[in-house]
Amino acid sequence: MAASSPIIRLGTRGSPLALVQANMARDALLAAHGWPDEAVEIVTITTDGDRIQDRPLAEIGGKALWTKTLDLALVEGRTDASVHSMKDVETARPAGIVLAAMLERADVRDRLIGADSIDALPQGAIVGTASPRRAAQLLRLRPDLKIVSFRGNVATRLKRVEQGEADATLLAAAGLDRLGEHALGAAIPVDSLLPAVAQGAVGIECRADDTATRAALAAIDHLPTHRCVAAERAFLAALGGSCHSPVGVLAEIRGDVIHLRGEILTEDGRVHRAGETDGSPESLARDLLAGAPPELAALFACAS
After folding, report:
1. Distance from chain centroid for Cα 25
2. Alpha carbon distance 122, 245 (integer Å)
3. Residue range 35-79, pLDDT digits in tens
4. Which residues fall within 8 angstroms of residue 196, CB to CB, at 6 or more apart?
5. pLDDT computed for residue 2 by the predictor
6. For residue 58, is it left (φ>0), alpha (ψ between -120 and 50) or beta?
7. How far apart are the first and last CA of the chain?
8. CA angle (205 as vertex; 199, 208 as ends), nearest 5
9. pTM for the complete prediction?
10. DSSP characters for 75-109?
11. CA-based angle 148:13:85, to the nearest 5?
């Protein structure tokens, strides 16, 4: 192969955060293999999730809006791998695509923009979020709050708060840090808001039959992150439900075991079930569903 030809073409969304994460993956590959800069090319792809900003994600196709365009480019051979925020990747993935590597996980917490804490929000404050999880968790803690739908990239959501469309919003700490906004917002403890599945994790997928790319990506796989994210995704898969179904979960390696905390909520936050285990993610999901009242269980009707 000519020196000027890329060894790996990384597909990514074109948002500022997605490009930062793609460059993180690129830098990791270059460092791991001692490749020259031109060995890894970043290919920017516009997804349906980027084009459609005026409706909640759950109403227009869910997480697949972020992934299907990147998947198509991968399957068609226009890219060799795709870089994803793992919390945006649906649990059921197409045959022929494998999650080959994950970068080391960053801060899993949410940050509140607009107030120093959830308790400090004014009575009846308007909070902008498109996340059913965040909305339900906030309403559980503060049923007086009014939730309005906010979509868009980080800059868009921050601008909407600045313009007075809402008093506050929640953003992932990992994303803010990757964009250089280390001091922006107040970090919310995970004991108050359990994060989304795989929050803070960046994954790289490739074609299952592309052994060269799989081998190259294996060199940058952070195994502890991979294990924890796999456990969280298994928990979500066992619950069933949809992107309307509020779920929080966090896996942490403690000694030789993965400790998992999980919760499910109704969309208004009134009904809540939580638990934790050192056992299987599937068993925790079954336990939460078994004790759930009908209005909560109905949100997970497609669970097996």
Report:
1. 16
2. 27
3. 999 999 999 998 655 554 545 544 544 456 678 899 999 999 999
4. 87, 131, 133, 247, 248, 249
5. 43
6. alpha
7. 49
8. 145
9. 0.90
10. HTTS-SEEEEEGGGS-SS--TTEEEEEEPPP----
11. 70
What are the backbone dihedrals phi and psi of residue 21, each rounded to the nearest 5 degrees, phi first?
Answer: -70, -35
Digit-coded pLDDT (tens) for 199-220: 999 999 999 999 999 999 999 9
Q: Are 111 and 171 in contact (CB under 8 A)?
A: yes
Tokens 């069933």: give the residue.
240
Pure H helices in 80-222: 132-141, 154-162, 173-178, 211-218
Type of residue numbered 277: T
Q: How does 172-199 read in b/e, with b if 16+ C-beta sit within 10 Å?
A: bbbbbbbbebeeebbebebeebbbbbbb
Residue 214, C-beta contacts closer than 8 angstroms, at least 6 positions apart: 98, 100, 206, 208
d(CA 284, CA 303): 13
Query: Which residue in this structure is represented by tokens 């870089």?
Result: 83
151 sits in the region (left: phi over 0; alpha: psi -120 to 50; else beta) called beta
Catalytic residue numbers?
88
* CA distances in angstroms from 36 to 11, 31, 33, listed in the order given: 19, 9, 9
Span 144-161, pLDDT tens digits = 999 999 878 888 899 999
